[in-house]
Amino acid sequence: MNRGMNRAVLLRRAVQGLPSAEDFVLTERPMPVPGPGEVLVRNSFLSLDPYMLSAIKGRHMSGAADLDQTMQGDTVGTVVGSNDAVFAIGTRVIARGGWQEFSVLRALPAGAGGIDTLTGPYARPLPPADPDIADSAYLGVLGMPGLTAWAGTAILAPPEPGACFVVSAATGAVGSIAGQIARNLGARVVGIAGSAEKCVYAVEALGFAACVNHRAGDFPEQLAAACPNRIDGYFDNVGGRILDVVLQRLALRARIVLCGMIEQYQAETRLPGPSLAPVIGRRAHMMGLVVYDHVARLAEWQQLASQWIREDRLRWREDRAETLAAAPAAFVRLMQGQNFGKTVVVL
Ligand SMILES: NC(=O)c1ccc[n+]([C@@H]2O[C@H](COP(=O)([O-])OP(=O)(O)OC[C@H]3O[C@@H](n4cnc5c(N)ncnc54)[C@H](OP(=O)(O)O)[C@@H]3O)[C@@H](O)[C@H]2O)c1
After folding, report:
1. Å from CA of 4 to ligand 1 middle
2. Would you state the pLDDT for residue 285?
3. I want to staple 141 with a disulfide (CB 3.0 to 4.6 A). Which of 50, 146, 154, 155 is the partner?
4. Which atom of ligand 1 is nearest to the CA of 148?
């Protein structure tokens, strides 16, 4: 067992608006020692996710990020010390290990489920290693973001074949998978993304029918042109201005999955919301998506996604940063929309 030091990133101060790297501090602490029933895990990959800014501002359902405490986040790693009968040294695990190199964790207790599975301080073993799929995929396409995409697209509001299905943050961790699932179900998928480069990727690599840059001055007109028969389904990752533009193009009985409101995460006070009147006028259905409700079907999603990956019907992309010290800057990039794919720190 490593008796050296453990490096961790703490939240240093309250965040105003967008986060900056100075809001965090890298510290060195003595290596944690696992107690009875606990394991020491060397984290290999750390997931950075938009909800972390909500947590920093005390607004996320998974809990608040506390000052001077290690930032929370999902990790994939390997057991390097074990006082647990089930977890042998060398076991590859996924856990909420935090922004740190080593974590002390417990095995997921029998009977635990739902939100605890994803947000508790528990280690869960990964499926057998697959030479074609890096373990970091369990933080993205085969993990919480992938499950979120599948829940919203295939469970809550599956599109009809030929339907016009629009997804925002279309090249991101959730959006890229949601769009490809809709495409695989036969929909005509139109992405909304924040750069020309992202839009090219959405069409050429992800197989979307079209992609519109929301930073273009004539974004509403471009979206209308890309969706000539209006929008039957919308998977919303952003809210605010983009949602407002999409609502003006709804087809009759359109279905909207509200997945995320990233535009609001940086705001200190509530932003004036979009007019939801078209939802009523067009008899649209709008529903909230919480990934925690679908945890029981994670294995089913992983099986389907793995098959699609092997068949090249599902692609994912990672925006990697190297070393824990790079985590704050990578998080800032994510929250500024500069990430391109699932943000992962290689520790
Ligand atoms: N409901 C649930 O259970 C659940 C679970 C997981 C994630 N989510 C939500 O799903 C959304 C996507 O998450 P993700 O992990 O897949 O992130 P991501 O899409 O990989 O990264 C965030 C993206 O949001 C876009 N964006 C648009 N407006 C933005 C703004 N004002 N500020 C910053 N970014 C903006 C950017 O893409 P463009 O440049 O292309 O616009 C950016 O790259 C988030 O809102 C997240 O909170 C919800």
Report:
1. 37
2. 81
3. 146
4. 5
290 lines ligand 1 (CB under 6 A): yes
Q: Residue 272: how many CB atoms within 10 A of its CB?
A: 6
Residue 336 CA: nearest ligand 1 atom is 33
CA pair distance 34, 169, nearest whole angstrom:
40
Q: pLDDT tens, 145-186?
A: 999 999 999 999 999 999 999 999 999 999 999 999 999 999
- Residue having the nearest C-alpha atom to atom 20 of ligand 1: 172
> Quick check: CB of 147 below 6 Å from ligand 1?
no
Are 300 and 324 contacting, i.e. CB atoms less than 8 angstroms apart?
Answer: no
Q: Whose CA is nearest to atom 8 of ligand 1?
A: 260
Q: Are 184 and 308 a contacting pair, CB within 8 Å?
A: yes
Distance CA 131, CA 5 (A): 31
| pTM for the structure as a whole | 0.91
For position 90, what pLDDT does the model report? 96
What is the per-residue pLDDT for 298? 95
Strand partners, 340: none
97, 73 contact by CB (below 8 A) = yes
Residues of the chain with pLDDT under 70: 1-3, 109-111, 113-117, 119, 270-271, 274-277, 279-280
Predicted pLDDT of residue 111? 66
SS3 category, 92: strand
CA distance 259 to 199: 21
Q: Say what the pLDDT of residue 319 is.
A: 97
Residue whose Cα lies nearest atom 25 of ligand 1: it is 169
| CA-angle at 170, arms to 342 and 270, nearest 5° | 90
